[in-house]
Specification:
Strand order of the largest sheet: 3-2-1-4-5-6
Number of strands: 6
Distance between the termini: 52 Å
Number of helices: 14
Shape: globular
Strand content: 5-15%
Order of helices and strands: HHEHHEEHEHHHHHEHEHHH
């Protein structure tokens, strides 16, 4: 498995950043979360004048073997059909990328379909769909390592293009099931509290989904290590996203974390390299059952709560203007001394 050199941001600059933020022409702390974000981004970039450059949203797409057990309302072919929609510019993520100036990259991690790569899809396919983890591991160790490597490679491309802020999204019918499995394994929150409606299951469907996932958990015969749990219950697109997050942190990029699935990916990444959390900004609290519990367990403070549960990176991109406001605050607000204003706090 690829190793990463991820370090906590150097704290030496914290005092100067805090002093700059506190001396902007406002009562101390009055811009709340914007001040917290400006401090975090200044620490990541090790500068008093942070910048956001060439934002990109990467969608990792793959199919899941567990879908064969009827855990999703949507059929498997929706994965490749929605990718076609991305290419035509008609999906939710497309209008948000256009609105907020994000470049969109679509990556085939393991879609069970022969996609038209000449249309701009990046071919990183490891295999056509993960295996059904009710009966066996979703992927081999070699396949997991390939996912990590290829996710990291995509981020290196983004970085070479001048990008320093990434949103990560996913497309894969069945991936809320895999996310629920990671959530219960890594947080010890009971599985029943981690399982939700996904793309729209009714109560009976949720009960069936829980029953299937509980049996899969009962059948697990692995060694319980982080690596083994990631490969056994993960999706190919999810593991690729883990590799992307780890590479982004090594390159000291800002990671905008999307909804339930991507929050579980940063959770898994943090179990491998805890320092990755210093580079993460949580875009929103989604409407999927378990997301709030997961965020609370991680001590994460999401920027938005709009009832979203689409995925694709949409919630993370929606939060971007708040991140931009934080950077504009520290760079564009005047300070008391220069503006000849008496401190009023």
């Amino acid at each position: 498995m690829k190793t990463f050199q991820i370090t906590r941001p150097d704290e030496t600059i914290r005092e100067a950043l805090t002093d700059k933020i506190n001396n902007l022409t406002k009562p101390k702390g009055s811009l709340g979360t914007l001040e917290e974000l400006a401090l975090q981004i200044g620490l990541i970039q090790q500068t008093l004048t942070p910048t956001l450059k060439c934002p990109q949203n990467i969608i990792f797409a793959a199919d899941h073997g567990i879908v064969d057990e009827g855990v999703s309302l949507s059929p498997k072919e929706i994965t490749w059909q929605q990718i076609s929609n991305f290419l035509h510019g008609g999906a939710g993520v497309n209008f948000l990328c256009r609105q907020h100036g994000f470049e969109l990259k679509i990556v085939d991690a393991g879609v069970d379909y022969d996609l038209p790569y000449d249309r701009g899809i990046i071919n990183m396919k490891v295999r056509k769909s993960s295996r059904n983890y009710l009966h066996e591991a979703a992927m081999t160790e070699e396949e997991m390592d390939l996912c990590i490597d290829r996710g990291a490679e995509i981020v290196r491309r983004c970085h070479a293009e001048g990008c320093n802020v990434l949103s990560l999204g996913e497309m894969g019918i069945g991936n809320t099931s895999s996310s629920s499995m990671w959530m219960t394994c890594f947080t010890r929150i009971p599985l029943e509290q981690c399982v939700g409606a996904g793309s729209g299951l009714d109560n009976a469907g949720i009960r069936h989904k829980y029953s299937v996932l509980q049996r899969a958990l009962d059948n697990y015969q692995g060694d319980g290590s982080v690596r083994d749990l990631i490969r056994y219950f993960g999706g190919l697109e999810m593991v690729m996203a883990v590799g992307a997050m780890l590479q982004a942190a090594e390159l000291k990029m800002i990671i905008l974390v999307d909804g339930f699935i991507m929050t579980n990916c940063i959770l898994a990444a943090s179990r491998l390299y805890p320092e990755v959390m210093h580079y993460a900004i949580f875009g929103h609290q989604g409407d999927e059952t378990g997301h709030k519990l997961l965020l609370d367990a991680m001590g994460a403070k999401p920027l938005l709560n709009l009832g979203l549960r689409l995925g694709e990176g949409t919630g993370a991109i929606c939060s971007y203007p708040i991140v931009d406001s934080a950077v504009r605050m520290i760079n564009e607000m005047d300070n008391f001394a220069h503006a000849s204003i008496t401190k009023y706090f």
